[in-house]
Amino acid sequence: AQLYPKVARPVLFRIYQNTGEATEVRVAAFYALMKTNPPAQLLQRIAQFTNDDLNPQVISAVQSAIKTAAYNQKVPTQLAKNAQAAVNLLNPKVMPIQYSKKNIRSYYNQQLNLGYKQAFSYIGSDDGFLPSNIFYAFRPQFGGFNRKSFGFAAMSSSLDALTDLLEDQYSDAPSSSSHRSQKQPQQQGPWSFEKINNMLHIQPSEQEQVEASLTVSTLVGKRFFAIDNHTVEQLPQMFKKAAASLRSGENFNYTKMANTFTLNVAFPTAMGLTFTFSLQIPTLLY
Q1: Are the C-beta atoms of 144 and 109 separated by less than 8 Å?
Q2: Per-residue confidence (pLDDT) for residue 248, from 0 to 100
Q3: Measured between alpha carbons, how far is 141 from 11 in angstroms, rounded to an integer?
Q4: pTM of the predicted model as reported, rounded to 2 decimal places
Q5: What is the dihedral of CA 30, 32, 36, 40, to 10 degrees?
Q6: What distance in Å separates the CA atoms of residue 236 and residue 165, rounded to the nearest whole number?
Q7: Which end of the chain, N or C, is less surrounded by CB atoms within 10 Å?
Q8: 179 pLDDT exceeds 50?
Q9: What is the dihedral of CA 122, 57, 22, 207, to 10 degrees?
Q10: How confident is the model at residue 39 (pLDDT cuts 50, 70, 90)?
Q11: Which long-range contacts (CB under 8 A, 24 or more apart) does 143-151 make?
Protein backbone atom coordinates (compact mmCIF):
# COMPACT_ATOMS: atom_id res chain seq x y z
CA ALA A 1 0.00 0.00 0.00
CA GLN A 2 2.89 2.38 0.71
CA LEU A 3 5.21 1.29 -2.11
CA TYR A 4 2.56 1.14 -4.86
CA PRO A 5 -0.37 3.25 -3.62
CA LYS A 6 -1.93 3.79 -7.05
CA VAL A 7 -2.09 0.03 -7.63
CA ALA A 8 -3.35 -0.92 -4.17
CA ARG A 9 -5.84 1.93 -3.73
CA PRO A 10 -8.59 0.74 -6.15
CA VAL A 11 -8.31 -2.86 -4.95
CA LEU A 12 -8.63 -1.90 -1.30
CA PHE A 13 -11.52 0.43 -2.07
CA ARG A 14 -13.47 -2.35 -3.80
CA ILE A 15 -12.94 -4.64 -0.82
CA TYR A 16 -14.09 -1.93 1.57
CA GLN A 17 -17.16 -1.08 -0.52
CA ASN A 18 -18.30 -4.71 -0.79
CA THR A 19 -20.96 -4.92 1.93
CA GLY A 20 -21.14 -8.69 1.58
CA GLU A 21 -17.53 -9.09 2.70
CA ALA A 22 -16.65 -10.01 6.29
CA THR A 23 -16.48 -7.12 8.73
CA GLU A 24 -12.85 -7.73 9.68
CA VAL A 25 -11.81 -7.79 6.03
CA ARG A 26 -13.62 -4.55 5.21
CA VAL A 27 -12.17 -2.71 8.21
CA ALA A 28 -8.65 -4.01 7.53
CA ALA A 29 -8.95 -2.96 3.87
CA PHE A 30 -9.94 0.56 4.92
CA TYR A 31 -7.03 0.78 7.37
CA ALA A 32 -4.66 -0.20 4.57
CA LEU A 33 -6.38 2.26 2.25
CA MET A 34 -5.53 5.14 4.61
CA LYS A 35 -1.83 4.29 4.19
CA THR A 36 -2.03 5.07 0.45
CA ASN A 37 -2.62 8.80 1.09
CA PRO A 38 -6.05 8.79 -0.61
CA PRO A 39 -7.16 11.93 -2.47
CA ALA A 40 -9.93 14.20 -1.23
CA GLN A 41 -12.46 12.90 -3.75
CA LEU A 42 -12.03 9.33 -2.54
CA LEU A 43 -12.28 10.29 1.14
CA GLN A 44 -15.43 12.29 0.40
CA ARG A 45 -16.95 9.28 -1.31
CA ILE A 46 -16.06 7.04 1.65
CA ALA A 47 -17.41 9.57 4.15
CA GLN A 48 -20.69 9.88 2.24
CA PHE A 49 -21.03 6.09 2.15
CA THR A 50 -21.15 5.97 5.96
CA ASN A 51 -24.69 7.38 5.75
CA ASP A 52 -25.83 4.34 3.71
CA ASP A 53 -23.66 1.61 5.25
CA LEU A 54 -25.39 -0.67 7.76
CA ASN A 55 -22.27 -2.09 9.44
CA PRO A 56 -21.51 -0.16 12.67
CA GLN A 57 -17.96 -1.53 12.84
CA VAL A 58 -17.07 -0.11 9.42
CA ILE A 59 -18.85 3.19 10.10
CA SER A 60 -16.96 3.66 13.37
CA ALA A 61 -13.62 2.88 11.71
CA VAL A 62 -14.20 5.43 8.94
CA GLN A 63 -15.40 8.12 11.35
CA SER A 64 -12.45 7.85 13.71
CA ALA A 65 -9.82 7.61 10.96
CA ILE A 66 -11.00 10.64 8.99
CA LYS A 67 -11.59 12.79 12.09
CA THR A 68 -8.19 12.08 13.65
CA ALA A 69 -6.43 12.51 10.31
CA ALA A 70 -8.09 15.91 9.92
CA TYR A 71 -7.57 17.33 13.41
CA ASN A 72 -4.67 15.48 15.08
CA GLN A 73 -1.96 16.62 12.68
CA LYS A 74 0.27 19.35 14.16
CA VAL A 75 1.86 19.98 10.77
CA PRO A 76 -0.53 20.42 7.80
CA THR A 77 -0.11 17.46 5.47
CA GLN A 78 -1.86 16.46 2.29
CA LEU A 79 -3.72 13.70 4.12
CA ALA A 80 -4.95 16.19 6.74
CA LYS A 81 -6.23 18.58 4.05
CA ASN A 82 -8.00 15.75 2.23
CA ALA A 83 -9.57 14.51 5.46
CA GLN A 84 -10.78 18.02 6.35
CA ALA A 85 -12.56 18.17 3.00
CA ALA A 86 -14.49 14.98 3.83
CA VAL A 87 -15.11 15.24 7.58
CA ASN A 88 -18.42 17.12 7.20
CA LEU A 89 -19.87 14.32 5.07
CA LEU A 90 -19.52 11.67 7.78
CA ASN A 91 -22.43 10.01 9.52
CA PRO A 92 -23.14 12.21 12.59
CA LYS A 93 -24.06 9.24 14.78
CA VAL A 94 -21.67 8.75 17.71
CA MET A 95 -20.39 5.17 17.79
CA PRO A 96 -19.48 3.48 21.11
CA ILE A 97 -15.88 2.75 21.97
CA GLN A 98 -16.24 -1.03 21.54
CA TYR A 99 -16.57 -0.58 17.78
CA SER A 100 -13.55 -0.37 15.49
CA LYS A 101 -11.44 2.77 15.81
CA LYS A 102 -8.33 4.25 14.21
CA ASN A 103 -6.30 7.10 15.66
CA ILE A 104 -3.75 8.89 13.46
CA ARG A 105 -1.48 11.43 15.13
CA SER A 106 1.68 13.29 14.15
CA TYR A 107 3.83 16.00 15.69
CA TYR A 108 6.85 17.94 14.48
CA ASN A 109 8.93 20.65 16.16
CA GLN A 110 10.70 22.81 13.59
CA GLN A 111 13.06 24.40 16.11
CA LEU A 112 14.34 21.06 17.41
CA ASN A 113 13.81 19.33 14.07
CA LEU A 114 12.17 16.42 15.87
CA GLY A 115 8.84 14.72 15.38
CA TYR A 116 6.94 11.48 15.23
CA LYS A 117 4.09 9.72 13.48
CA GLN A 118 1.93 7.14 15.19
CA ALA A 119 -1.16 5.15 14.33
CA PHE A 120 -3.25 3.08 16.72
CA SER A 121 -6.19 1.05 15.50
CA TYR A 122 -8.27 -1.91 16.50
CA ILE A 123 -11.11 -4.01 15.10
CA GLY A 124 -14.07 -4.64 17.36
CA SER A 125 -15.08 -8.14 18.35
CA ASP A 126 -18.52 -9.67 17.83
CA ASP A 127 -18.34 -11.84 20.95
CA GLY A 128 -17.09 -9.39 23.55
CA PHE A 129 -16.35 -5.83 24.57
CA LEU A 130 -12.61 -6.05 23.93
CA PRO A 131 -11.27 -5.81 20.35
CA SER A 132 -10.16 -8.91 18.48
CA ASN A 133 -7.36 -7.19 16.49
CA ILE A 134 -5.02 -4.44 17.68
CA PHE A 135 -2.41 -2.57 15.62
CA TYR A 136 0.12 0.06 16.70
CA ALA A 137 2.97 1.73 14.81
CA PHE A 138 5.34 4.52 15.85
CA ARG A 139 7.93 6.19 13.60
CA PRO A 140 10.24 8.88 15.06
CA GLN A 141 11.82 11.63 12.97
CA PHE A 142 15.24 13.08 13.78
CA GLY A 143 16.83 15.79 11.68
CA GLY A 144 14.28 15.41 8.91
CA PHE A 145 14.95 11.68 8.47
CA ASN A 146 12.44 8.96 9.19
CA ARG A 147 13.91 6.42 11.59
CA LYS A 148 12.95 2.79 11.84
CA SER A 149 9.41 2.29 13.02
CA PHE A 150 8.43 -0.09 15.77
CA GLY A 151 5.09 -1.43 16.85
CA PHE A 152 3.04 -4.56 17.23
CA ALA A 153 -0.02 -6.31 15.82
CA ALA A 154 -2.15 -8.76 17.81
CA MET A 155 -4.93 -10.74 16.14
CA SER A 156 -7.25 -13.51 17.31
CA SER A 157 -10.06 -15.50 15.74
CA SER A 158 -12.21 -15.28 18.87
CA LEU A 159 -11.13 -13.19 21.83
CA ASP A 160 -13.85 -14.66 24.05
CA ALA A 161 -12.66 -18.21 23.38
CA LEU A 162 -9.03 -17.18 23.91
CA THR A 163 -9.76 -15.56 27.28
CA ASP A 164 -11.77 -18.60 28.37
CA LEU A 165 -8.87 -20.87 27.44
CA LEU A 166 -6.39 -18.70 29.34
CA GLU A 167 -8.70 -18.62 32.34
CA ASP A 168 -8.90 -22.41 32.34
CA GLN A 169 -5.11 -22.69 32.30
CA TYR A 170 -4.39 -20.18 35.06
CA SER A 171 -7.38 -20.75 37.34
CA ASP A 172 -6.72 -21.94 40.88
CA ALA A 173 -6.28 -25.70 40.80
CA PRO A 174 -7.90 -26.52 44.20
CA SER A 175 -10.93 -24.35 43.56
CA SER A 176 -11.36 -25.68 40.05
CA SER A 177 -11.09 -29.28 41.26
CA SER A 178 -13.64 -28.67 44.02
CA HIS A 179 -15.86 -26.92 41.50
CA ARG A 180 -15.67 -29.95 39.23
CA SER A 181 -16.40 -32.28 42.15
CA GLN A 182 -19.53 -30.26 42.95
CA LYS A 183 -20.68 -30.40 39.35
CA GLN A 184 -20.01 -34.13 38.96
CA PRO A 185 -23.03 -35.36 41.02
CA GLN A 186 -25.29 -33.02 39.09
CA GLN A 187 -24.02 -34.32 35.76
CA GLN A 188 -24.67 -37.91 36.84
CA GLY A 189 -28.35 -37.25 37.63
CA PRO A 190 -31.26 -38.65 35.60
CA TRP A 191 -31.66 -35.39 33.70
CA SER A 192 -28.01 -34.55 33.08
CA PHE A 193 -26.96 -32.94 29.81
CA GLU A 194 -25.10 -36.05 28.72
CA LYS A 195 -28.11 -38.35 29.20
CA ILE A 196 -30.47 -35.91 27.50
CA ASN A 197 -28.12 -35.70 24.52
CA ASN A 198 -28.01 -39.50 24.32
CA MET A 199 -31.80 -39.78 24.53
CA LEU A 200 -32.34 -37.21 21.77
CA HIS A 201 -29.33 -38.41 19.72
CA ILE A 202 -27.82 -34.92 19.75
CA GLN A 203 -24.31 -34.64 18.38
CA PRO A 204 -22.50 -31.90 20.36
CA SER A 205 -20.53 -29.50 18.21
CA GLU A 206 -16.78 -29.68 18.58
CA GLN A 207 -15.01 -26.70 20.07
CA GLU A 208 -13.40 -24.52 17.43
CA GLN A 209 -9.65 -24.21 17.39
CA VAL A 210 -8.47 -20.95 18.93
CA GLU A 211 -6.06 -19.14 16.62
CA ALA A 212 -4.11 -15.98 17.40
CA SER A 213 -0.91 -14.28 16.32
CA LEU A 214 1.42 -11.60 17.61
CA THR A 215 3.84 -9.60 15.47
CA VAL A 216 6.40 -7.36 17.18
CA SER A 217 8.60 -4.94 15.25
CA THR A 218 11.66 -3.62 17.10
CA LEU A 219 15.19 -2.47 16.33
CA VAL A 220 16.36 -6.05 15.80
CA GLY A 221 13.67 -6.82 13.25
CA LYS A 222 10.25 -8.41 13.27
CA ARG A 223 9.21 -11.38 15.38
CA PHE A 224 6.11 -13.41 14.65
CA PHE A 225 4.41 -15.67 17.19
CA ALA A 226 1.58 -18.05 16.29
CA ILE A 227 -0.75 -19.17 19.08
CA ASP A 228 -3.32 -21.97 19.21
CA ASN A 229 -4.86 -24.28 21.81
CA HIS A 230 -1.70 -26.34 22.21
CA THR A 231 0.44 -23.22 22.71
CA VAL A 232 -1.81 -21.92 25.49
CA GLU A 233 -1.92 -25.33 27.17
CA GLN A 234 1.89 -25.43 27.26
CA LEU A 235 2.28 -21.98 28.85
CA PRO A 236 2.03 -23.18 32.51
CA GLN A 237 4.74 -25.77 31.90
CA MET A 238 6.95 -23.17 30.24
CA PHE A 239 6.55 -20.79 33.18
CA LYS A 240 7.30 -23.57 35.67
CA LYS A 241 10.43 -24.49 33.74
CA ALA A 242 11.56 -20.85 33.63
CA ALA A 243 10.90 -20.44 37.37
CA ALA A 244 12.89 -23.58 38.14
CA SER A 245 15.79 -22.27 36.05
CA LEU A 246 15.76 -18.96 37.94
CA ARG A 247 15.73 -20.71 41.31
CA SER A 248 18.70 -22.84 40.33
CA GLY A 249 20.69 -19.73 39.38
CA GLU A 250 20.98 -20.39 35.66
CA ASN A 251 22.76 -17.64 33.74
CA PHE A 252 21.85 -16.60 30.24
CA ASN A 253 22.98 -13.84 27.90
CA TYR A 254 20.94 -12.11 25.22
CA THR A 255 23.05 -9.84 23.02
CA LYS A 256 21.99 -8.39 19.69
CA MET A 257 23.51 -5.91 17.27
CA ALA A 258 21.13 -3.63 15.40
CA ASN A 259 21.51 -0.68 13.04
CA THR A 260 19.23 2.05 14.32
CA PHE A 261 19.98 4.29 11.35
CA THR A 262 21.27 3.55 7.84
CA LEU A 263 21.94 6.17 5.16
CA ASN A 264 23.32 5.70 1.65
CA VAL A 265 23.95 8.70 -0.62
CA ALA A 266 25.33 8.44 -4.16
CA PHE A 267 25.71 11.05 -6.90
CA PRO A 268 27.98 11.50 -9.95
CA THR A 269 31.05 13.73 -9.96
CA ALA A 270 32.79 15.79 -12.64
CA MET A 271 35.30 12.95 -13.18
CA GLY A 272 32.50 10.58 -14.15
CA LEU A 273 32.91 8.44 -11.05
CA THR A 274 30.14 7.90 -8.53
CA PHE A 275 30.60 9.34 -5.07
CA THR A 276 29.07 7.09 -2.43
CA PHE A 277 28.59 7.88 1.23
CA SER A 278 27.29 5.34 3.74
CA LEU A 279 26.40 5.89 7.36
CA GLN A 280 25.36 3.27 9.89
CA ILE A 281 24.70 3.70 13.60
CA PRO A 282 25.04 0.33 15.33
CA THR A 283 23.44 -0.31 18.70
CA LEU A 284 24.26 -3.07 21.15
CA LEU A 285 21.24 -4.59 22.89
CA TYR A 286 21.83 -6.79 25.88
Answers
A1: no
A2: 81
A3: 31
A4: 0.75
A5: 10
A6: 12
A7: C
A8: no
A9: 70
A10: very high
A11: 143/113, 144/113, 145/261, 145/263, 147/260, 147/261, 148/219, 148/260, 148/261, 149/217, 150/217, 150/218, 150/219, 151/217
